[in-house]
Amino acid sequence: MKTKKAFLLVLLVIAVAVVIWYCIRRPSDQPTVQSAPVETNQTNEANQAPVAAAPTARKAIAPSVTASEPTPESNPAAWIETRRKQIEAEVQKGVNEWRTPIEFYGMVVDENTDPVSGVQIDFSCNDTSPTGNSHYQTTSDANGVFVLNNAQGKLLVVRLSKQGYYTSKKDNDSFEYGDRYSHFVPDANNPVIYHIRKKGVAEPLIVLDKNFQVSISGKPLEIDLRTGKVASPGQETVIMEFVKRPPEKPDDQIYDWSFRVTVPGGGLLLSTNEFDFLAPERGYEPSDLVEMKSSLGDDWQSRMKREYFVKLPDGNYAHVILDLMSHNGSLKVQAFINPSGSRNLEFDPQIAINP
Predict the structure, then answer these.
(1) Which of 81, 95, 228, 233 is the most exposed place for a label (fewest CB within 10 A)?
(2) 47 within domain boundaries
(3) Are residues 152 and 103 in the same domain?
(4) What residues are paired with 309 via a beta bridge?
């Protein structure tokens, strides 16, 4: 509220300054009208005619302003008050977005699409409370359903948790209510679906989480997934090759780029199932190529994030996540390797093996 009052006070001071400036400048306007060019064959009396005409010209605009609409000229104080009320109304209109009524209906299912009860749901609403956020909590019922009502705010964030379960990172967790043009409409008959999966038995995995810089010219980057070290060509296990071509026009934001990952002596397989922790026995390819052409239009992307099952040359299996920013060749590599030879890649940070 203090910020709002300060904002209104600043606007009021500016409005007063405008009125004072206008009043100071007004006398200087008359000579400009009086000295308007006239024909050289007119008399001195004719030269003075514009002086008498000036008030008439100024009065001619008066009928366009009604008595109920004060101007800085006719009634500065009333005009300032009118503008103050208009500004306050606009500010209030914006504040009301944070007072939008919120209702929400959700449902939790497992990997077999069966409803899950007892899931803890945490809600966070952006609102006009002193902290700017209000928090609510509930649990899913026997049908996996949960509901939030009698709340208000502009943005709702939903978080799920249950002991012994994974929660999906792909489910939508943010909902806009205060946006008058694109707001979320709750529907009790069509609840938002959330997915969780019961945890299995994890095994000790070697974990790598490191950032690399890949050359945009296609120079290979070879790394050892076990240590994260960069080595000379032919010595390590995974090869990254990134090529970025300049745009056709200097001002273009879209360009051609490609990225290839290769596992010499092994292979990789694209992983699309979020909760799939068992590496397949077969189906691996030596390399995978991602090509992004500027001709793709709206389908063009500057970022690549892909997950793979990887079979290493020594026969061990890994889950690898690559996150590339094409504008500068920044590459984040996450790898989870099972050194026992098992295909089980379910991860528990409590028993992780750090390189």
Answers:
(1) 233
(2) no
(3) yes
(4) 269, 319
